[in-house]
């Protein structure tokens, strides 16, 4: 019989409960395998940790219910090709539902809270293809209406639908209560190009739509920190729960599995302090872009290629797809093209590629292509299109990047348009229903791309 997991059953396996100094939005698997891990491993005295995380779910309250019942504790399974290592995680000290605006306001009004991190998926920023807040989006306009009413009333904390709306409310209250001491770092940990600008555009776009002058006040208080985050973290399954119970004796309802590899590169200021994440291997750099491109193009770019080409070929996981010689060739070709534009000597592309192959081939990480394939419009826009454009600007064909874009289009055309798992599903449905679907899908990726005759010859043939 397994034991429920909580601070009393864990006993001395955890240190004391650290004070909340970080707020996180988007309590998914990745946060628990990455930022929570780095925060726990940054502590110099594990018995008396100093940085606790108060996390909020992104939408449903499920993860908050599960983790609250366990006092925030969960088990992280580090899964290499050979073996599993089980670690009890205790840096998340509070798990709240996304709906709990009063708690978010209270936390952000506390001067000791110094950092906000986010993992709300690319779609959770509600940005349009040009990178600005999409004010036509229903969730965005609903938050604008609620905030217009609530902001002038200091005690109001309505339930909001977007991460940007929640941050506008919480940061407005922080500035009102802390004045000069309201400086704080907001750190997007989602896979996006220039994620610091992405979260800034979302939050300031929301503020601008709600109240004159608010965007400027928020921008003065917030340091928008850019990051490149990496640790392959598949969705949790019932099998994992069973395996954790067998190995540890705990009936953990919210375990997480991840590969041993992890990396976090950050650029930006932390006006109110931060955990010493460098103790856990994080790197702080002045210029994030080369690192971000290496990760988004080489890893995420080929993940997306494998997701579409792999599912079309009948594969289910990354490990299966990379074992297919044709797909491996497509991955290598994409890397050759992308690598020509990753010339910073600090990047060591050959070693990075070799390590990616080993990570993809880890047979014990069951990373589903269907999970990676969600929200393809936003992902292909930043993972494949820039490689194609960089190749064309250098006078080359961009054939491998085009092959990846074609894989997305071919796969999309086999899907039921009514059940697309994509934040841009409406635009995709419209494109798929038109007279020239492939061309229209290219235009969803980037307006005008459908008119690129060279890309058309590679992607649209047979339309
Ligand atoms: N899983 C990985 O390997 C990995 C690695 C690097 C980066 N990331 C980044 O982390 C993100 C989350 O990955 P995950 O594995 O935790 O996924 P997950 O499905 O476990 O969790 C997603 C989280 O985002 C929230 N969310 C989803 N849509 C939202 C929306 N529209 N508005 C607000 N919140 C929303 C969910 O409620 C949940 O808390 C990814 O989209 C990616 O940008 C993931
Ligand atoms: O998490 P997403 O949905 O942005 O992308 C799917 C995968 O490409 C991604 O999660 C990678 O596994 C991750 O970025 C590795 O660090």
Automatic annotation (TrEMBL):
Designated name of the protein: Mannitol dehydrogenase family protein
Gene3D superfamilies (alphabetical): N-(1-d-carboxylethyl)-l-norvaline Dehydrogenase, domain 2, NAD(P)-binding Rossmann-like Domain
Organism per entry: Rothia koreensis
Claim: Secreted is one of the keywords in the record: no
Catalyzed chemical reaction(s): D-mannitol 1-phosphate + NAD(+) = beta-D-fructose 6-phosphate + NADH + H(+)
Signal peptide from the UniProt entry: none
GO molecular function, one term: mannitol-1-phosphate 5-dehydrogenase activity
Annotated Pfam families: Mannitol_dh, Mannitol_dh_C
Annotated ranges, domain Mannitol dehydrogenase N-terminal: 21-278
């Amino acid at each position: 019989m397994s034991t429920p997991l909580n601070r009393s059953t864990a006993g001395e396996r955890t240190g004391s409960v650290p004070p909340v100094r970080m707020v996180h939005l988007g309590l998914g698997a990745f946060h628990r395998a990455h930022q929570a891990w780095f925060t726990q491993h940054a502590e110099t005295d594990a018995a008396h940790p100093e940085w606790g995380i108060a996390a909020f779910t992104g939408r449903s309250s499920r993860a908050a219910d599960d983790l609250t019942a366990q006092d925030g504790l969960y088990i992280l399974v580090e899964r290499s090709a050979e073996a599993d290592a089980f670690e009890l995680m205790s840096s998340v000290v509070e798990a709240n539902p996304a709906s709990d605006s009063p708690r978010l306001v209270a936390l952000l009004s506390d001067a000791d809270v110094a950092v906000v991190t986010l993992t709300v998926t690319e779609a959770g920023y509600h940005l349009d293809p040009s990178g600005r807040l999409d004010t036509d989006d229903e969730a965005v306009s609903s938050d604008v209406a609620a905030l217009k009413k609530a902001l002038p009333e200091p005690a109001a904390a309505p339930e909001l639908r977007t991460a940007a709306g929640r941050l506008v409310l919480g940061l407005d209250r922080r500035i009102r209560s802390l004045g000069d001491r309201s400086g704080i770092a907001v750190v997007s940990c989602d896979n996006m190009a220039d994620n610091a600008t992405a979260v800034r555009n979302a939050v300031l776009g929301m503020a601008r739509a709600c109240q004159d002058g608010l965007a400027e006040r928020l921008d003065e208080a917030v340091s928008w920190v850019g990051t490149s985050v990496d640790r392959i973290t598949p969705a949790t399954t019932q099998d994992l729960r069973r395996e954790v119970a067998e190995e540890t004796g705990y009936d953990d309802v919210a375990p997480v599995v991840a590969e041993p590899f992890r990396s976090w590169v950050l650029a930006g200021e932390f006006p109110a302090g931060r955990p010493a994440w460098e103790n856990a291997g994080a790197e702080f750099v002045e210029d994030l872009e080369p690192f971000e491109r290496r990760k988004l193009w080489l890893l995420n770019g080929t993940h997306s290629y494998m997701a579409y080409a792999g599912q079309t070929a009948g594969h289910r996981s990354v490990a299966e797809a990379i074992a297919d010689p044709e797909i491996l060739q497509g991955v290598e070709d994409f890397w050759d093209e992308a690598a020509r534009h990753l010339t910073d000597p600090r990047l060591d592309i050959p070693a990075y590629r070799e390590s990616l192959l080993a990570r993809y081939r880890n047979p014990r990480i069951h990373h589903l292509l269907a999970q990676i394939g969600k929200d393809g419009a936003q992902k292909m826009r930043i993972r494949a299109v820039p490689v194609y454009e960089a190749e064309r600007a250098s006078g080359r064909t961009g054939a491998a990047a085009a092959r990846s874009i074609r894989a997305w289009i071919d796969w999309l055309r086999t899907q039921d348009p009514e059940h697309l798992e994509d934040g841009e599903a409406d635009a995709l449905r419209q494109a798929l229903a038109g007279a020239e679907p492939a061309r229209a899908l290219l235009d969803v990726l980037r307006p005008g791309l459908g008119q690129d005759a060279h890309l058309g010859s590679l992607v649209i043939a047979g339309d």
